[in-house]
Amino acid sequence: MTGPDDPTLPPSASALRIDRSRPRRGGRGGGAWILGLLVLAAVAAVAWSFLSRAGGLLGGTEVAAGRALRVSANLASERTTASGYVVARTRAAVSPRQPGKLARLLVDVGDPVKEGQLLAELEHVEEDAAVARWEAEVARAAAEREAAARSAKERAAAAERARSEEESSRVAENEAAVRAADARREADRLKKLVVDRIVTESEWDRAEAQARILESQLLRARSAVATARAEAVRAGLDAETYGSRVASAEAAAAGAEASLRESRARRDIAFIRAPFGGRVLRKEAEVGEVIAPATTGGSTTRGALLTLADFQTLEMEVDVFERDVSLVEPGAPCRIVLDAYPREPFPGRVRQVVPTADRQKATVQVKVSFDAPDPRVLPEMGGKVVFLAAGALASSEADRVTVPDAALVERGGRRGVFLVVKESSDERVKFATVSAGESSGGRTTVKEGLAGGERVVLSPPPALEDGDLVTVKEGS
């Protein structure tokens, strides 16, 4: 053992040792310790009060909490609820069928349009020139066709006349043959009578001369028949030739008309029309920009001109959890509550349950149509759909939000409730001003300020202020 005067200890260590050889002093030392403890207790009390007010590390003010409840008018017939957005079943991004420079834009965002209405024009100078060229070609071909038709008609008439003349020549030939035959028989008879001296030779000479005259006429008639036949053949061939010319002229005219239709169709592409009636949602290009079909648009071209939607086909698309799909029936009534009009629900009906699921979200898409179009409903509005049992009547009354009467307080002349909100790992209160309505059964209807589902502080302490840290009692 070493003593206090042990020379082996360093000087500093020796100074720290307690000298137990000195006698203890009396009660003055004990009083100082008591006074220090009292001061420390006072500081702790102030710190406790401060930490209780500010939240600190002690957990904040202990409070009881309740719920703001949303009560539906169709509560008894509700099956399930899902959220989604308003979409247009008939919607299109209008773009040209070929690239071009936008020359005119005739509509703006929000404008109503009718099916077939002219929306915009691309530059079409070259197309106009092509149309004018083919219009002239069609006129020329039509004139040639008419001229060929007139000539063919004239040749056909000439061929008909030639055939008629041939027929007349044949008739004259037949008559001349009959007369020549008669004259020849008469001359031969008189020749026999001259031998028997019954008639004179002069009578026979006259008969012979007459026969020869008629036989000469017969020869001329036969020559006329041959000439008429040849003329008829020539006229027929001429008519056929001009008939072929007419066919060629008609083919040329048809080709020119087809080319004209094609050039007009190419020009019509420059005139962009509405594919259906609706309203313009977005304008994607301005006059002077080059626009092109989306499949061929480059970095310097716009792929669409306008976005058009038919507001008569607006509906809600919501995602229903797979476990609730059995509660949704096609044709069943619904209440559509849009975020923009939470107190004015719209009646609707299940139009379609899409026959596939989203494996990532474990949901099935359901499309709900509005019972009647409403001008307040716009595409992409958010909201929820309350699915009702088949045969139920969707109420037009808005859902009611109620809070316990004990949650209502006044702070700075404003009536409201303290909401319990989560901030990281802490819970704090936030004062929310509300518009209170009727009270019944220990709960008060809140007209404005709450959506339902919030946690509210019951019987808030008078010292509780906005932003205070709180600890919610278990079971509340």
Characteristic terms for this protein:
476 residues; alpha+beta; conserved putative lor/sdh protein from methanococcus maripaludis s2 fold; Elongation Factor Tu (Ef-tu), domain 3; OB fold (Dihydrolipoamide Acetyltransferase, E2P); 4 domains; 6-stranded antiparallel beta barrel; 4-stranded antiparallel sheet; 4 helices; rod-shaped
Characterize the biggest β-sheet: 6 strands, antiparallel, barrel
CATH architecture of the largest domain: Orthogonal Bundle
First-last Cα distance? 66 Å
Number of helical stretches of at least 4 residues: 4
Instruction: Kindly provide the radius of gyration, computed on alpha-carbon positions and rounded to a whole number of angstroms.
Output: 57 Å
- Work out the number of β strands: 24
- Tell me what portion of residues adopts beta-strand conformation: 25-35%
> What is the assigned CATH homologous superfamily of the largest domain?
Helix Hairpins
The helix/strand order is HHEEEEEEEHHEEEEEEEEEEEEEEEEE
Strand order of the largest sheet: 3-12-15-14-13-16
Outline the low-pLDDT stretches.
1-16, 20-28, 51-57
Oligomer: single chain
Give the CATH topology of the largest domain: Helix Hairpins
Q: What does the overall shape look like? A: rod-shaped
Count up the domains.
4
Helix content: 25-40%
Give the averaged pLDDT, no decimals.
Answer: 83
Counting helices, strands and paired strands, the structural category is alpha+beta
* CATH class label of the largest domain: Mainly Alpha
